[in-house]
Write a structure and sequence with these properties.
Layout: H1 2-29, H2 37-44, H3 57-66, H4 80-90, E1 101-104, H5 125-130, H6 147-151, E2 157-159, E3 165-167, H7 177-181, E4 187-190, E5 196-198, H8 206-212, H9 222-226, E6 232-235, E7 238-241, H10 251-255, E8 261-263
Antiparallel strand pairs: 1-4, 2-3, 5-8, 6-7
Length: 274
């Protein structure tokens, strides 16, 4: 009995030693050298972990930067000083940084846009969009459930009292997450210096737009006729602005019958404290 126990213990010990040796050599064979720069780069990045760069957070981008698979400017959250520091560390050029902010390309407030039905369900624009394209008369208009606001990792947006999201451009990093989650294409990234915004994305004919929204572009082309800079044209029933030609004179804004054109004068929009 005792000898059997001793034998079993010895066998188990030998097996344990063999397994330990096997694991030791396997660890050496499959060992991957870690780039020491990854941790340093991770600490240089803002730490937002928003994923807007296309990688799994800041550590994922740091690994890609160290491997030469990404550029510093892929981080839209980092400021110019941080990007310059990262580029210097990597020995590369940071390149020009063109800041972008999110803007709401819809003026169909709850007072101006027709509601065809009430919506009862998950408070998510993507869910509402799946049900007969949502309760709003305009199938291109903002659904107003605030999915973009909920998903913004920087608290740069609020849902306004008129049913449309409002962006604080002084906080917005241009990460594009709100653009990705909006099922209507209402959220778009633009230069904060863009002088003119067309607050409509509907390609419907003017008569159809009028039937469902008082604030949509009706393709009347008045904006074209009054623009001395030839900076705005109606294409596919929607006014489109050439920012390189637009001087922000406001003539088109003044004459637009539905007020879907908004002059921004390149001013960063800041939300007032609530």
């Amino acid at each position: 009995m005792v000898s059997s126990m001793v034998t079993a213990g010895a066998v188990m010990g030998v097996i344990g030693v063999l397994f330990s040796i096997g694991l030791f050599y396997a660890a050496r064979a499959f060992h991957v050298e870690e780039d020491e720069r990854v941790e340093l780069l991770t600490n240089m990045l803002p730490g937002a972990n928003c994923g807007a760069c296309g990688f799994s957070g800041c550590s994922g981008l740091a690994q890609a930067l160290a491997a030469g698979r990404a550029q510093p400017t892929q981080c839209s959250v980092a400021n110019s000083e941080q990007l310059a520091k990262i580029a210097e560390f990597l020995g590369v050029e940071a390149g020009p940084v063109e800041r972008q902010v999110a803007r709401v390309m819809c003026g169909g407030t709850s007072a101006k846009a027709t509601q065809l039905a009430g919506y009862v369900g998950l408070e998510d624009c993507r869910a509402a969009h799946l049900i007969a394209s949502g309760p709003k008369g305009c199938t291109y208009g903002c659904l107003g459930l605030g999915t973009c606001v909920q998903e913004c990792p920087f608290d740069a947006m609020v849902l306004g009292p008129d049913g449309l999201p409002v962006v604080d451009e002084s906080v917005c990093t241009g990460c594009g997450i709100c653009v990705q989650v909006c099922p209507r294409g209402i959220m778009q990234l633009v230069s904060p210096e863009a002088p003119l915004t067309v607050r409509c994305v509907s390609p419907m004919a003017g008569k159809q737009v009028r039937a469902v929204c008082q604030a949509g572009c009706i393709a009347c082309k008045i904006c074209e006729r009054v623009c001395d800079q030839d900076a705005i044209h109606v294409i596919d029933n929607l006014a489109r602005v050439n920012e390189e030609l637009c001087n922000g004179c406001g003539a088109c804004v003044e004459k637009c019958p539905t007020h879907c054109l908004e002059l921004t004068d390149g001013q960063v929009r800041v939300l007032e404290a609530v």
